[in-house]
Amino acid sequence: MNIIEIKDLSFSYQDEVDALSNVTLSVKKGEWVSVLGHNGSGKSTLSKLIIGLLKADSGEIKVDGVILNEESVHDIRRKIGIVFQNPDNQFVGVTVEDDIAFGMENLCFEQSDIVDKIKEYAEKVSMSEYLKKEPHALSGGQKQRVAIAGILAMKTDIIIFDEATSMLDPKGRESIMNYIKEINKAGVTVITITHDMKEAVLSDRIIILKEGRVIACGDTNDILNDKETLNSSNLELLLPLKLQYLLDEANLSNDKVKDILWQLSLNK
Amino acid sequence: MKNIIIGQYLPGTSFLYKMDPRSKIIALMILMISTFILKDVTHILIMLGVVLLILKIGGIPIVRIARGLKPIMILLLFTFTFQIIFIKTGNLIFDTELTLTVFTLPLMIFIILFWYLTRRYIKFKFLYLLITAFGILTMLSLYTPGSVLSSSTLEVYGDGLSGAFFIMVRLIIIVTLSTILTLTTKPTDLNLGLEKILKPLSIIRINAEEIAMIISIALRYIPTLLDEANKIMLAQASRGVDFTEGKFKDKVMQIISLLVPMFIISFKRSDDLANAMEARSFVPGKRRTRLHTLSWHNLDTTVIVFCIFIFISAITVRVMF
Fold first, then answer.
1. CA distance B224 to chain A (A)
2. Is B2 a member of any domain?
3. A2-227: CATH number
């Protein structure tokens, strides 16, 4: 069952070239989809359109069977949570607990319920000791974990990670990726928006955007085998992938393999 | 920049900390009004005694209050001087002839210049100013060689002196009271208290919740923006901008080079933040539940009753005497 269906979606910022043109895609319930694309490919624009922060020029977005429009936008936002790129710019509360509570306060949860949920979800992202801390005492990874807890507490069906790891150090990135895996396992539909193929290969399905168009869409394995599309997408390919392609091309003599490995390790 | 403390909250456990921020704000207002009602030196001194008693029971060190009074020192001095010079009723306490001669005029200018140049090296700047001013006055009244340029009399009257004293005490009480509030209440609690008190203003279409939200976000972003400003200053300094030295004109240019990127960053941030808030179902003006709620205890009622008692006494005293 498709939880998100997008048909012929186009969008352009004021008198610029189309950020998105005729995008059609769908996301199944419970799956983990990566939207992969270069800077300026329109992937963040797509996430803002889905959650109704931007208004599409044409096309249609359906979330859980409901068409996104001015009346339904608030209901749809209850179903979708989004973790943004900059950990600092999405921290609304004065302290960690305030920030986790923010979404629940907006949804008018009971106060006692909010208190319980803060404990529960802070535990889930291992931030229990930091509940009274202020954001400037936290690392980027910790702030992103707080953002995740805040959204988990709102019990949304879908969570979009809009380059949520791109401003973090490798350690923070790894922990966030682990939480994403866990969240997806628990049955939440996850959409990760990224330019990093290393993150994208973890998901079930990959959608590749280039200059506002979907150039590929399919199961992760199929996409990885589609050499031509990947090469044309301007994305930085993973080392094993590069190796595989080069080995495919070459006649597999031992010397040749050595030569290829040598060149790759020199990053040529 | 990891340990910026906004406001001047001083951790403690006395009754002032146990009170609801709403009752503290209301009590502050009642006491302030009572202070303004009083018109007599003895009564205002009793009021000062009450305030000192609150400080004593509340366990707030006088040093912190003195620090709060520092910024209004100049104002205090100004009102004091103003009162002494211009009130000419009551009995004459003290008078002296101030004479400006061809010798003392340049001498006076020299002293002022000396004060201006050396004051940055003196630790007790305010005391230094007082001593200098007193020195000039003494010189003008005692030392009168050469031909006289102008002269006037300085007269200090009883009413002037008591009036000056009265206004000074009143200002000190007002500032002390508000300092007590900010010392014992966290900015977030203060904000929440204000929000609840201002709630009736929704009748005239002022949304207290929105104002409180704006204040709380401002509080939350002050450290972040200071951090940002620090980074920009370092970046500029690494390219040769010197923020500490230079002429006034240069300094203005340097401030502009800091302000422009700060503005751009703030707008970018606020745009992102607005998106993040909306994405988390925030709708301005819509009803929200709150994590933090306030609870009114017997202590709050007691304090308010006490303050009302002071208020009534102040009115009685004003009417009777």
1. 7
2. no
3. 3.40.50.300
